[in-house]
Amino acid sequence: MSAPFAKGPSDPTVQPVPASVIEQVDAADTTLSNPKRAVIALGANLGNRLETLQGAIDALEDTPGVRVKGVSPVYETEPWGVAPGSQPTYFNAVVVVKTTLPPSSLLERAHAVEEAFHRVRDEHWGPRTLDVDIVAYAEVVSDDPLLTLPHPRAHERAFVLAPWLDVDPEALLPGRGTVAVLLESVTREGVAPRADLELRLPE
After folding, report:
1. Is residue 131 annotated as part of the catalytic site, yes or no?
2. Catalytic residue among 67, 131, 166, 168
3. What is the dihedral of CA 61, 67, 53, 104, to 10 degrees?
């Protein structure tokens, strides 16, 4: 299992893990052959939000052909696209995985994980026990209506960009540029780090 990616400015006490060390650890991971790197955003605003996010991370790790390589800090965020105060706040996080699954199969697994946590899709922008969104898959840019890559609104959302930058300070959003620059161009209002909460990298 690889060490998690170094956290960004939100946790200055964490020393960066040299890229050479990450590469050596990854080279020793023979469980995947020619894997692709994917970024997955998680969110929950119903039930035990932290437990749900951790359960989703563990379920992704338990997926054949998927290895979780980095887990971001937790952010608490106001719901997107609805009236203030009309829903509970979200806990959000981003995970970086390496996978041999094609994007379509990774999407199927994401939906299966949501369903395992009783995700209901009755209402657009409605509250949900769990969101599992594929933000980016390698350098793939696709307008497939079933899975648009990268996620068509990721560049507008601080609740995706902030934790992604924490888990991978050099991150690039294909077709959009660096996550650091994108984050500077959006508001962080309603998006707050929760230093008192922690998600663990699966063992």
Report:
1. yes
2. 131
3. -90
